[in-house]
UniProtKB/TrEMBL annotation:
Keywords: Membrane, Transmembrane, Transmembrane helix
Organism in which the protein naturally occurs: Thalassospira povalilytica
KW Cell wall biogenesis/degradation (keyword) present: no
Spans through the membrane: 30-55, 75-97, 118-141, 161-186, 207-236, 256-276
Protein name: Glycerophosphoryl diester phosphodiesterase membrane domain-containing protein
Keyword Chloroplast assigned: no
Length: 311
């Protein structure tokens, strides 16, 4: 009797129920963690401004059948310190959102003395994932640069189709793997089982949930972006009127202000998108654990056997 009832249970019946929409939780995460988000935004915009002062990288182009491939000269090993510098404020932003969603600890409370160790564990895991993706991108960029540059030196405009195809497939596979492990950093906040093996098992249970929800909220995010840039149009229009003959006629300070305003506006939209993804990942963590704990052959089997013994 118990076995029959167990077989009739609907799929994913253990999934937790959420009272609010994802955008509602994302807005709360954005609002209650605003000081952390502001610091992260200005840190990343400042880093981007510093990098832009080095000037554009050298670029080579090759074309085939109307398709043009532009390859930038690799930055070399300096790209890894840059990736680390960007990851630290980004990790602080994501950690504060996850902590608010999972523990109800907003803003500075998420970085209290009791929770400080969890943040550094979260940061270490984020760095591992970011540096792994960075290393792969640098490898393929370097390979393409060497191949294309040598071809141009020899007078060849041939597009390295096979290298491009393998690079695209490889990076896509890495992104899929990243989705499978996306709950690994945030699992340190929940405590309990937070190993990479557990995260991979959890990712297999929630892969389509995370991908589907991320795609589902894209229209709403595009509307928010449109509203944000529409509100800033009068300011940008006022700055454009100061252009003469295609060149900005302002002082160097006004040019910096123009650059910072544009980047900060885009950064605010990006920060809200991070809050949305943070809410989705937090829910994916809870749903994945519920599905693992309720999967056949594990806790469900134990419950059935115990109920059978009682009967």
């Amino acid at each position: 009797m118990t076995d029959i009832e167990h077989q009739k249970q609907p799929k994913n019946f253990n999934d937790p129920k959420f009272e609010n929409w994802i955008l509602h939780d994302a807005w709360n995460g954005f609002f209650y963690n605003l000081p952390i988000i502001l610091l992260a935004i200005f840190a990343m915009v400042g880093l981007e401004f510093v990098l832009s002062s080095f000037g554009p990288a050298q670029v080579v182009s090759v074309s085939k059948d109307g398709f043009t491939l532009r390859v930038e000269q690799p930055m070399g090993l300096v790209v890894f310190p840059v990736a680390i510098a960007f990851t630290v404020p980004f990790a602080a932003l994501m950690y504060s959102v996850h902590s608010f969603n999972l523990n109800g600890a907003p803003c500075w409370f998420a970085f209290s003395r009791q929770s400080g160790g969890m943040f550094f564990s979260f940061l270490n895991r984020m760095l591992i994932m970011v540096l792994a993706l960075t290393a792969e991108i640098v490898f393929w960029q370097h390979l393409l640069w060497v191949n294309v540059s040598q071809g141009l030196i020899q007078g060849s405009q041939e597009l390295p189709v096979y290298i491009v195809a393998i690079a695209v497939v490889s990076i896509f596979a890495t992104l899929v793997l990243g989705v499978l492990f996306v709950t690994w950093p945030v699992s340190v906040i929940q405590g309990g089982k937070s190993s990479a093996r557990r995260a991979f098992a959890r990712g297999k249970k929630t892969f389509w949930y995370i991908v589907g929800k991320s795609l589902l909220v894209l229209p709403a995010l595009l509307i928010i972006q449109l509203v944000a840039f529409s509100a800033a149009t009068p300011i940008i229009k006022g700055m454009i009127l100061q252009f003469g003959d295609g060149e900005f006629a302002g002082t160097p300070e006004e040019r910096i202000t123009f650059f910072v305003c544009l980047r900060v506006l885009a950064a605010f939209v990006t920060a809200f998108w991070c809050c949305v993804e943070g809410s989705i990942i937090s829910r994916g963590l809870l749903i994945g654990d519920a599905r693992l704990n309720g999967s056949p052959g594990r806790l469900d089997t134990e419950k059935v056997s115990v109920m059978g013994d009682v009967q």
